[in-house]
């Protein structure tokens, strides 16, 4: 039982990170109907920006909460610029082209970003010493002590806050309405006087900022990163987005959580080596029985 | 107000408009009739900037608009209700209307404007929290027109407002169009296959055949025209 609770806590933490990345996949898919395969690498860029900022601010000796906030903002800002630029360079010129073109461009962009970071930062893994240590212990009298680290609490709370802000943005603001309108009918949205290109750019900016927060969490949680982390994390987050129903925002959050839990439980109870296989097997099973994912629903329109 | 001269539009290599000349004056209702595939919707989409004219000019209040982006054209005061209404089916009625208010100084007068739309189409007020996709065809058409009015257009382009709507509602919608023109002082450019209704409503009208304007005149003149009676009125769409 204690072991189960420990895995649950770990799974939720991991799921938060996947969920934040998955939102970027699902938003971009919703609005322009393409899978942004460079999104995982945007997450990797976010992790690097966070790592570099942690090291710089670590030298100044500022208090920890202020460092966390500054790094968060800087990572979001820089990574948003990357996301925006990628869209302008690699996808916008291909809008109106055949469906596969931006997808190929995205794969290319993914390779470009990986190699760019490899050249700029070196191929070796970059370690960072733990910044937030300690935690709460439960079940002290049993054989297995459940530890919930402060870092895990930080990650989950930050995710909840961001999801809250994000949900408000999408459901209640002009920008969110314009985004949902673009998802359904871009031409009609333009015919109402809404700048569709700008709306798409903002989508990339939001998706990239959320991915950068995931990147920062990844640095804090694992303590090592390299230029290649975007690949596996990206594919898993993509799986999460499909699992929840691609195009559905609550689906991305749910899918992220599920992938995190499945992976952790598999690693904890079955086999650590095969944890990635578990996540992807679940994807295959889900696609066979629920082709639209859990929360994605086919559009029913009255004609 | 809106002057279209010698406009040619292509879809790839296929020419849809072969030099259209047409103008719409301030305060008028102008109808454009023609059969399927004559290029009526293409013309509206060209005015709105969705399709680009390869040749020719479109001038609105003295300014060339043929190379402007669609959202800029809406900002200038030309709003289109496209064929098939294109309601955002997953958004609520009120959200659809809010989207229409985007061009209108970011919805500064939203409360007042939405009330005017609800006065014009009371049924929308009853259904404001329903999703657009759950409305009937006629209600969707009202929503589409209301949504366009939220941008406070000077010219309203209407593409086939009677398409797929119960005959009883068609009359109501045509009455509303007349009201919008007379009371709200919005110039109307109406594209219709329902030639009889469109000509009865119009101050002036044009006939489009194969991407070219072949006949023009006042609505009443065209109603009496023998060629039009044979081609569009007797054998064609009846109400």
Structure summarized in a few sentences:
The complex is a heterodimer of chains A (303) and B (239). By secondary structure, chain A is mainly alpha-helical. Chain A is 73% helix and 4% strand.
Q: What are its keywords?
A:
heterodimer, A: 303 residues, mainly alpha, ABC transporter involved in vitamin B12 uptake, BtuC, two-stranded antiparallel sheet, 11 helices, 4 strands, 4% strand, B: 239 residues, alpha/beta, Rossmann fold, six-stranded mixed β-sheet, four-stranded antiparallel β-sheet, 38% helix
Report on this model:
Chain A has 303 residues and is mainly α. Chain A has a single domain (2-289), classed as ABC transporter involved in vitamin B12 uptake, BtuC. Helices cover 73% and strands 4% of the residues of chain A. Chain A is built from eleven helices and four strands; from the N terminus they run ααααβββααααβααα. Chain A has helices at residues 2-32, 39-60, 64-91, 100-121, 150-172, 174-184, 186-191, 196-222, 229-244, 249-269, 275-289; strands at residues 126-127, 135-138, 146-149, 224-225. Chain A has a two-stranded antiparallel sheet. Chain A has a two-stranded antiparallel ribbon with strand order 2-3. The model of chain A has no long low-confidence stretch (mean pLDDT 92). Chain B is α/β, with parallel strands linked by helices. Chain B has a domain at 1-77 and 189-239: P-loop containing nucleotide triphosphate hydrolases (Rossmann fold), CATH 3.40.50. Helices cover 38% and strands 27% of the residues of chain B. Chain B is built from ten helices and ten strands. Chain B has helices at 40-47, 70-76, 93-100, 110-120, 122-126, 137-149, 167-183, 195-201, 219-224, 226-234, and strands at residues 2-11, 14-24, 29-33, 53-60, 63-64, 78-81, 155-159, 187-192, 204-209, 212-218. In chain B, strands 6-7-8-3-9-10 form a six-stranded mixed beta sheet, with helices on both faces. Chain B has a four-stranded antiparallel beta sheet with strand order 2-1-4-5, with helices on one face. In chain B, β4 and β5 form a beta hairpin. In chain B, α3 packs parallel to α6. The chains are: A mainly alpha (303), B alpha/beta (239). The interface between A and B is medium-sized, with 22 and 34 residues.
């Amino acid at each position: 039982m204690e072991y189960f609770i420990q895995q649950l806590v770990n799974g939720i933490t991991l799921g938060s990170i996947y969920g934040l990345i998955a939102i970027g996949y699902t938003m971009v898919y919703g609005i322009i109907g393409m899978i942004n395969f460079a999104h995982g690498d945007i997450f990797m860029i976010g992790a690097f920006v966070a790592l570099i900022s942690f090291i710089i601010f670590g030298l100044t000796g500022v208090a920890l909460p202020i460092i966390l906030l500054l790094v968060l903002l800087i990572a979001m800002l820089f990574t948003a610029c990357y996301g925006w630029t990628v869209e302008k360079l690699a996808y916008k010129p291909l809008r109106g082209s055949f469906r596969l073109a931006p997808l190929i461009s995205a794969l290319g962009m993914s390779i470009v970003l990986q190699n760019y970071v490899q050249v700029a930062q070196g191929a070796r893994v970059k370690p960072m010493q733990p910044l937030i240590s300690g935690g709460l212990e439960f079940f002290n009298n049993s054989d297995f002590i459940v530890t919930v680290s402060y870092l895990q609490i930080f990650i989950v709370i930050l995710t909840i806050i961001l999801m809250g802000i994000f949900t408000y943005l999408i459901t209640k603001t002009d920008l969110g309405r314009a985004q949902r309108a673009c998802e359904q009918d871009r031409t009609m949205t333009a015919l109402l006087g809404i700048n569709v290109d700008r709306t798409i750019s903002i989508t990339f900016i939001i998706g990239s900022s959320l991915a950068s927060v995931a990147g920062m969490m990844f640095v804090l949680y694992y303590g090592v990163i390299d230029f290649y982390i975007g690949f596996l994390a990206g594919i898993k987050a993509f799986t999460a987005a499909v699992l929840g129903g691609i195009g559905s925002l609550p689906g991305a959050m749910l899918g992220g959580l599920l992938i995190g839990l499945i992976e952790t439980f598999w690693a904890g109870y079955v086999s650590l080596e095969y944890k990635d296989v578990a996540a992807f097997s679940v994807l295959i099973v889900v696609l066979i029985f629920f082709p639209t994912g859990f929360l994605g629903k086919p559009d029913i329109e009255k004609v | 107000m809106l002057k279209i001269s010698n406009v040619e539009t292509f879809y790839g290599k296929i020419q849809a408009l072969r030099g259209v000349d047409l103008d719409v004056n301030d305060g008028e209702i102008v109808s454009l009739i023609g059969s399927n595939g004559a290029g009526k919707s293409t013309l509206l989409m060209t005015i709105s900037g969705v399709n680009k004219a390869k040749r020719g000019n479109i001038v609105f209040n003295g300014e060339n608009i043929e190379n402007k982006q669609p959202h800029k054209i809406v900002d200038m005061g030309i709003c289109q209700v496209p064929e098939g209404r294109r309601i955002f089916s997953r958004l609520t009625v009120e959200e659809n209307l809010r989207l229409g208010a985007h061009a209108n100084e970011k919805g500064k007068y939203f409360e007042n404007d939405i009330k005017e739309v609800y006065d014009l189409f009371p049924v929308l007020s009853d259904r404001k929290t329903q999703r657009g996709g759950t409305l009937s065809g006629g209600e969707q058409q009202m929503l589409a027109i209301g949504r366009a009015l939220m941008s406070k257009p000077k010219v309203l382009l209407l593409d086939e407002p009677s398409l797929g709507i119960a005959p009883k509602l068609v009359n109501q919608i045509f009455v509303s169009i007349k009201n919008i023109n007379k009371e709200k002082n919005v110039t109307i450019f109406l594209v219709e296959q329902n030639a009889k209704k469109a000509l009865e409503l119009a101050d002036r009208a044009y006939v489009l055949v194969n991407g070219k304007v072949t006949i023009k005149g006042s609505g009443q003149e065209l109603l009496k025209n023998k060629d039009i009676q044979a081609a569009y009125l007797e054998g064609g769409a009846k109400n």
